[in-house]
Specification:
Chain lengths: 638, 511
């Protein structure tokens, strides 16, 4: 079993070698170390997967990380069905993206650095999913955030890129603030941080409360909400979603791997991992479902009007992550993880496809300045189309099965299910619309860029297109492991595989309802595509007309609901101003330093006055002596 | 209470640097002075190292003890010994001593002899403070340390060095004098002895605990430094030469927190419990205040100095949480802060030699100009931010855990310091290393990447960052038993309300 420790360690070794020797020795051969390492992890992950498939669960503690008083936590790993699925997702997509990057990053002066950070990321992500306790999870959680910081700001001479990296790290720290406190509260409640010891006890603390500012709050609810704070940050849910669109400043393979397929799904993974806790708190579950549902429609609506190819896909990611949380919040953990898994393939494909486009256009990202790329880059076009059909929920493709599963479970979940289902269905329409708006603007019609650009249009090299084609296979077929029973009985293989960890979803409905939900989502998807075709497929002035007819709404969406501006005005500026004026200027400068320097000044001034007594004139001294003598006599006599 | 060695290992360790300083008096050549100092500091580390292995981790009692009558008529002994709390500081001091000599190799070119004598005398003084078990001896070392530091800042410091040196001296002296009064009262009350262990075993009435605790607090709070008596620190740090800043951040300011652990808590457990809440609140204010002030700094050294106020707030927060996680986290964080902030000051010194400016605005784009330097700097940046895997995380996590356990609100407020910490450190890193270089300023610099000497200076600290981050037991194991013993002492103390009632009763009995 110890060979499985190599799964995270191989990429770590690749990182260490590349960061130490990349600059002077390895240089543009960095991929000779990084790619075999990640392929090695992939092969070992397959082996781990088959091991788990045959019914084994691996849970090893290596050594005690921290012991202090009654607190102790080991470093250890766990491979169960949930981890196994994540291992396959992470290592397979990493492998393809590493290979793609050989072409995409070719000639970049930070080539070795890129592969070093990417390897470090894979190590961190694998640690995150393989953790067997909350503190190792937290280690991976922070480490992926660090890699994200490095990779978003990879081109560090660009101010916007560095700002985006910093923003990602700090926004995430807001979430991690809650997450960290949640971890502490878990230990104080359960006396351990190991999953295997915490989860079985979960039932025994139901009803326990903590008094906070006079209110009795259910302990489990509090733990779940604190943990969820971390998930909201990492998975870019409202209101901490602001960092993800900016993160697109990083190189496109990074956006594909970290900000679409793997790292941002860590929050979904974590909530699913903690399902024994979340299930016990209906408040927490409702919160998760509501945050997910509103984020899904909120982000999708922004995506409708954006022009930056990567930002459209980024908002799409935020929206799809919302779907996953919606599923988790309705108790359909398997559906959430299923969508995580299919989404990883089609979303990575969309990003890599956009990378291929950006590569050929020399860093042009505005889809209004593209057009007609279909004939220049057919492989990119067809694979991009497959991914878009998949995300739009066209029957038979991966996205259809997982999205349908979510919509159905939400519909059948009871409570607010029907309302949230309606939100998700509207969001599904938007998804299909913005995906095909992008397709029509970028790949169809006439090329709208410069002649210089047009002259250089070409399909990307095969080192980039082969990964695209392999991901396209995933975008089509990955969902076939979870076919609903009304289409084919006993074909929900992923559901059965994950059931020991995630349980079975609650809520049932009739077959007729299930057909209805499925049919409607298909129709909605097609409707979105047709609307996009009507507006952008032919050359019309419809978009301008609609834009000017709904000017305020258009502006609101285009400016992303002004959330960034709001945070800048209410958090960033006040902190910086308070630092400058209140803390440094007034408190430190005036009050404290004023006192500190004031006391010696006062003593000095007093001494200065006192010195004047020492006039050196005998007559003055005589006068004072005489007065003193008189006073003494007066005191003695009376 | 024994010494497992057949020679007085602590005496040799403490006085070896002083012998070296004496030897330097007879040496003229600057190069020889540097080499001798380096060998002496390395020698001190080697002399001390057998203690690390021979240390018995299963007892809270003092080890490697030496006790000789010194001034019998006053009950004063020459008394040395260390336990699980002080042993780590002995090694931190010895390590930073070596690094201070190394980092000054090129940057100090005036009065080389005097500089190294001051450094070695300083080291002896600091080792003496951590090893003394007699108040008389302790106070001598405590005050003796001030003089070389005063000289280091005042002679080899920056433009505003005299103001900073005098401020540093007066601030700390004022606190120390109050402590001296406290020591004299203890001496009279405890039956004419200055033996720290004997005095620790006396149960003092609460009114006495109350006042002596405050007297000691004056000395220790200034040293830590706790809010609001911290303003000497930014000036002292900014003006001090690199080696001075490293020693100041690495060891000197640890003395205050060490004083809490060695004297305030074990001797006055009731008072410690009584003052825990106000001191914790001051600590939290310090954490947030120090961090907030960092955002507005224009001088890189001042920024790191203010970040020390924030980090030391974590230390005192942990200590006064008075539970094992808080105390152990606090002690560990003292070591961590010595390593991380020591390293950051070393790095600032290294770049200052090339740029002769400390203004953040003059920097920029250094990641491509000096990539190895940038790579090492980011390790310490993230250690300072408390990223898991680095030593900073273990300390901060244990402290927040301990604080949360004591009172959830304390843990909650302290954790905000972590967000702020990431904010100001990443801002700093961005402005120094990223974006485009400032062409006007860069043209004046003679930028070269880390030299071998500089890399070797930083290497031990890099190793410690990860070693402690991944295997903190290596250090925590030394302190477990001593910390448990300390907690046992405070465990018997009464609650705050009872204490106040008891105090009032005692006052009346007094009259």
């Amino acid at each position: 079993m110890l060979k499985y420790t190599l799964i995270p360690l191989l990429p770590l070794i690749s990182f260490v070698i590349n960061i130490l020797f990349g600059r002077n020795a390895i240089k543009d051969k960095a991929h000779w170390i990084a790619v075999p390492a990640v392929l090695g992890s992939f092969v070992l992950s397959l082996s781990a997967f088959t091991d788990v498939l045959s019914g084994n669960t691996i849970n090893i503690n290596f050594y005690n990380w921290i012991i202090s008083g009654d607190f102790n936590v080991p470093i250890g790993l766990l491979i169960d069905p949930l981890t196994a699925v994540m291992l396959i997702v992470v290592t397979s997509i990493s492998s393809l993206i590493f290979i793609y990057s050989i072409g995409y990053m070719h000639g970049d002066k930070g080539y070795y650095r890129f592969f070093a950070y990417l390897s470090l990321f894979v190590f961190s992500m694998l640690t995150l999913v393989m953790a067997n306790n909350f503190l190792v999870l937290y280690f991976g959680w922070e480490a992926v955030g660090l890699c994200s910081y490095f990779l978003i700001g990879f081109w560090f001479e660009k101010k916007s890129a560095v700002n985006a990296g910093k923003k990602a790290f700090i926004v995430n720290r807001f979430g991690d603030f809650g997450f960290g406190l949640g971890v502490i509260l878990i230990f104080l409640t359960f006396g351990s941080l190991e999953y295997a010891k915490v989860f079985p006890q979960a039932g025994s603390v139901v009803g326990q409360t903590i008094n906070i500012l006079g209110y009795d709050i259910n302990t489990i609810t509090l733990i779940c909400l604190l943990l969820f704070c971390g998930a909201v940050g990492k998975s870019a849910q409202m209101p901490l979603h602001v960092w993800l669109p900016d993160a697109m400043e990083g190189p496109t393979p990074v956006s594909a791997l970290i900000h679409a397929a793997t790292m941002v799904t860590a929050g979904v993974f974590m909530v699913a991992r903690c399902n024994p806790l979340f299930t016990l708190s209906s408040t927490a579950m409702t919160t998760v479902a509501l945050v997910g549902g509103t984020t899904a429609i909120f982000a999708a609506s922004i995506g409708l009007v954006q022009n930056d190819i990567k930002r459209i896909i980024a908002y799409s990611t935020v929206s799809q992550l919302g779907y996953m949380f919606l599923a988790l919040g309705m108790g359909a953990y398997t559906a959430g993880i299923f969508h995580l898994y299919t989404h990883a393939y089609f979303k990575a494909l969309l990003f890599l496809g956009s990378g291929s486009v950006i590569h050929t256009l020399h860093d042009e990202m505005n889809i209004q300045k593209m057009g007609g790329l279909k004939k220049y880059m057919p492989i990119t076009y067809w694979t991009f189309l497959i991914a878009s059909l998949s995300i739009s929920g066209i029957p038979g493709l991966s996205g259809f099965f997982s999205k349908d599963e979510i919509l159905w479970r939400v519909y059948a979940g009871g409570g607010m299910g029907k309302f949230l289902w309606a939100l998700a269905t509207i969001a599904a329409f938007m998804t299909a619309f913005y995906s095909f708006r992008l397709i029509y603007l970028a790949f169809h019609g006439k090329f709208r860029g410069t002649h210089e650009q047009e002259h250089h249009l070409h399909e990307s090299p095969s080192i980039m297109t082969v990964p695209l084609m392999l991901l396209a296979v995933g975008a089509v077929a990955a969902g076939w492991v979870g076919i609903p029973h009304i289409l084919a009985p006993h074909s929900d293989r992923i559901g059965e595989f994950l059931a020991p960890v995630l349980g079975h979803p609650k809520g049932e409905g009739t077959h007729a309802e299930e057909w209805f939900v499925m049919g409607l989502s298909t129709v909605i998807g097609l409707a979105g595509i047709l609307t996009a075709y009507a507006m952008y497929g032919k050359k019309t002035d419809l978009p301008q007309k609609i834009g000017s007819a709904f000017q305020p709404i258009y502006k609101l969406l285009y400016n992303k609901y002004y959330v960034d501006e709001l945070y800048d005005k209410t958090i960033v500026r006040p902190v910086l101003n308070a630092s400058q004026k209140v803390f440094l200027g007034f408190l430190d400068g005036k009050i404290i330093e004023g006192t500190v320097n004031g006391i010696p000044a006062l003593i000095g001034a007093f001494g200065e006055r006192l010195r004047k007594i020492q006039t050196g004139m005998i007559s003055h001294y005589g006068l004072v002596m005489a007065a003193g003598a008189l006073i003494i006599i007066w005191i003695v006599i009376f | 209470m024994t010494n497992n060695f057949d020679y007085p290992i602590l005496t040799v360790t403490v006085f070896f640097p002083l012998l070296g300083a004496l030897l330097l008096l007879f040496v003229r050549n600057a190069a020889s002075i540097r080499w001798i100092s380096l060998l002496v500091t390395i020698g001190t580390f080697i002399i001390a190292s057998p203690m690390l292995c021979a240390f018995d981790k299963t007892t809270h009692l003092m080890q490697f003890v030496e006790k000789k009558p010194w001034i019998p008529s006053l009950g004063i002994n020459y008394f040395l010994g260390i336990d699980g709390i002080s042993i780590l500081f002995i090694f931190l001091t010895a390590l930073l001593g070596v690094l201070s000599v190394l980092v000054s190799w090129k940057s100090i070119d005036t009065k080389v002899k005097e500089f190294h004598i001051a450094i070695l005398a300083m080291e002896a003084g600091m080792l003496g403070v951590f090893a003394s078990l007699d108040f008389f001896l302790f106070y001598i070392f405590w005050e003796a340390m001030l003089i070389p530091m005063f000289i280091l800042i005042g002679v080899w410091g920056g433009a505003n060095r005299v103001y900073a040196a005098v401020k540093f001296f007066l601030y700390t002296l004022l606190g120390s004098v109050l402590m001296l009064v406290g020591i004299i009262v203890l001496y009279l009350y405890g039956g004419s002895t200055l033996d720290i262990l004997t005095l620790s075993n006396i149960k003092y009435p609460f009114y006495l605990q109350y006042w002596i605790f405050l007297a000691f607090l004056a000395a220790f709070a200034v040293k830590v430094p706790m809010f609001p008596v911290h303003t000497w620190l930014p000036d002292a740090h900014t003006e001090a030469p690199t080696a001075g800043s490293v020693i100041l951040a690495g060891v000197l300011i640890k003395m205050g927190a060490y004083g809490f652990l060695r004297f305030s808590i074990p001797m006055f457990p009731d008072a410690a419990k009584f003052f825990a809440a106000p001191l914790i609140i001051l600590s939290i204010v310090g954490i947030i205040y120090g961090a907030m002030v960092c955002f507005a700094q224009k001088d890189i050294k001042r920024l790191i100095a203010y970040s020390s106020v924030s980090h030391m707030g974590f230390v005192t927060l942990g200590i006064f949480s008075l539970n094992s996680q808080g105390l152990e986290g606090g002690i560990l964080q003292m070591i961590n802060h010595g390593i991380i902030t020591g390293a950051l000051f070393l790095m600032i010194g290294i770049i200052y030699e090339r740029t002769h400016t400390r203004m953040i605005a003059d920097y920029g784009g250094f990641a491509s100009l000096v990539p190895w330097y940038a790579g090492v700097f980011i390790i310490f940046t993230f250690a300072s931010v408390g990223l898991p895997g680095t030593n900073g995380f273990i300390g901060e996590f244990l402290i927040i855990f301990g604080a949360f356990k004591a009172k959830w609100l304390w843990g909650f407020l302290a954790a905000t310091g972590i967000i702020l910490g990431a904010g100001y450190m990443l801002r700093l890193y961005q402005k120094v290393f990223f974006e485009k270089a400032n062409p006007e300023a860069t043209s004046r610099f003679h930028l070269t990447d880390l030299s071998l000497r500089e890399a070797l200076t930083l290497l031990p600290l890099i190793i410690l960052v990860f070693w402690i981050g991944l295997y903190p037991q290596a250090l925590l194991d030394y302190m477990h038993v001593s910390v448990e013993h300390l907690i046992k002492k405070t465990g018997s103390a009464a609650g705050a309300e009872n204490l106040m009632a008891q105090y009032i009763r005692e006052i009346f009995r007094w009259f």
